[in-house]
Amino acid sequence: MKNQVVLYARVSSTLEGRQSYSRQILELTEFATRNDYHIVKIFAEKVSGTKKNEDRPALMQMIDFVKNNNIQKVLCLECSRIGRSLIDCLTVIQTLTENKVSLLIVNNNLETLDEKGNVNPITQLVLNVMFSFSNMEKQLILDRVQSGYKNYRANGGKVGRKIGYTKTDEAMRAEYMEELKLLRKNISLRNIYKITGTSLNTLQKLKKII
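Structure (tokenized):
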């Protein structure tokens, strides 16, 4: 059967309860229907994009499935759903390519293989540029936040909370807005600590609030 595809959707586990992969699946299903693709199986998971490929069960199951079931394409909504880093994303693409399976990134209209099964060099170039800009943006955010905290401390500001005082979740959200923003961007606790000076214990509590 021609045009046999599988769908892959992922949302971050750090935003569990606030994100659902149902929207991704709906959009991918509608796209497949419009293009006369036959959906053989759907793979979806809630897991941080910072996790290595081997620590993402649904991704590993999807790769194993397409290897053994004559699948032509894998559909995903965005390249960031496959992996947050260029290396992880390219590793998945290489494995799919070796098995003559094309990755179709719907929102960017990018496909890794052409109709003849040859590698699409334009897609590789675009993905490299996209990930380069993404990494640059993350570094700019870190630099801005770090600069802001240095200026705050230089003017007598203090970061942290008083000993023996227990704050409500709402109070914690109000006081640690920048830390929460960084947590939602999947920046590691140790890096946030280096930027803000907020203790790892407090950051762990903030992560639970999210």
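DSSP finds nine helices and five strands in the chain. The mean pLDDT is 79.
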